[in-house]
Amino acid sequence: MHVFITGGTGLVGTAVVAELLGNGHTVLALARSAASAKAAEAAGATTLRGSLTDLDVVRAGAARAEGVIHLAFSNDFSSAQAVARSVAEETAALTALGEELIGSDRPLVTVSGTPWVPGAVSTEADPLPTDGPVGGRGRTVDAILALASQGVRSSSVRLPRTVHNNGDGGFAGLLTQIARGTGVSGYPGDGTQRWPAVHALDAAVLFRLALETAPAGTAWHAVADEGDTVRDIATVIGRRLGLPVEQLPEESFGPLGAIFATDQPSSSAHTQQALGWKPVHPSLLEDLENLRP
Predict the structure, then answer these.
(1) 2-161+197-225: CATH homologous superfamily?
(2) Residue 288 carries which DSSP code?
(3) Would you put residue 242 in left (φ > 0), alpha (ψ -120 to 50) or beta?
(4) N or C: which end of the chain has fewer CB within 10 A?
(5) Is the pLDDT confidence value at 273 over 90?
(6) How many CB atoms are located within 10 Å of the residue 56 CB?
(7) What pLDDT is stored for residue 77 in this prediction?
């Protein structure tokens, strides 16, 4: 299959491109810079220059492909305004991709986070949150899945709070960045809240499986670790960086502080059974041992 991918040079995207190419697919990658284009081409993809805000380019990429995987997101969490801007840009791009594929029966695989359910482990059957700092992403993904009724084989891979590789990535990666900047490996709340996680190489396999086989309008969980406590995550980070481990106020973690403090374990039992996906790479706590001071 000839696949158009956005976000193909990020932590997850790099792994997805390699997974696709290693399984007989070809890849056209959206590249917003010369450096991104060079990286994608070195990996074996062809490139299309543009960003998520270049909607005509995004549509052209989808038109040239037999399937689409959307991963790009600015990941600017510096302020509530920056998060809202990132969500709005993604919404416009995903809407353009979906409109281009209507009536084609081609796959469109998009991405979201796993939902959180108070007092329970979330599953694929739980709805995405549609309010809060990133609620717009949930509304957009719901709209893309609804395109199943208009001839788009749309599906969503829900990524956990940390997608990691070599000790970096996701919420745990943000904790590491904050720790390096402040000199304290901190955690919000009482530290018993749980975050799910997955290795990027395992997540990449699930994106490929969804592209190849997922029925229209379905959601899947790329979860390997159902929930490591934030205190355990911060403890490993502190030990690897040689920093003290301390509880910090939610506001120390910026606009995502309230989400950081939320207990949000998640399961992938249905995904593993239905799609035959089996995570095999190191767990988050194991992978964090790769951190260097």
Answers:
(1) NAD(P)-binding Rossmann-like Domain (3.40.50.720)
(2) G
(3) left
(4) C
(5) yes
(6) 9
(7) 62
The domains of the chain are located at 2-161+197-225, 163-196+227-265+281-290
pLDDT surpasses 80 at 134: no
- What is the mean predicted confidence (pLDDT) over 94-101? 97
The predicted pLDDT at position 179 comes to 96
Same topology, domains 2-161+197-225 and 163-196+227-265+281-290? Answer is no
| Intra-chain end-to-end CA distance of the chain, in Å | 42
Distances (CA, A) of 45 to 17, 69, 110: 8, 14, 19
Fold adopted by 163-196+227-265+281-290: UDP-galactose 4-epimerase; domain 1 (3.90.25)
> Could you give the CA distance from residue 273 to residue 268 in angstroms, rounded to a whole number?
9
Task: With both helix axes pointing from N to C terminus, report the angle between 80-101 and 55-63 in degrees, rounded to the nearest 10.
Answer: 40
**With bands split at pLDDT 50, 70 and 90, how would you rate the model's confidence at 73?**
confident
Nearest to 251 by CA among 36, 16, 80: 80
Secondary structure in 3-state letters for 141-205:
HHHHHHHHHHCCEEEEEEECCEEEECCECHHHHHHHHHHHHHCCEEECCCCCCEEEEEEHHHHHH
pLDDT for 78: 67
**CA pair distance 186, 100, nearest whole angstrom:** 45
Closest CA to 160 of 113, 208, 124: 113
Q: What is the amino acid identity at position 277?
A: W
Phi-psi region of 152 (alpha: psi -120 to 50; beta: other; left: phi over 0): beta
Note the pTM of the prediction, 2 decimals: 0.94
Cα–Cα distance, 40 to 20 (Å, whole number)? 13
pLDDT, tens digit (0-9, with 9 covering 90-100), for 221-257: 999 999 999 999 999 999 999 999 999 999 999 888 9
75: pLDDT strictly greater than 80: no
**Pairing of β 107-113 and β 26-31:** unpaired
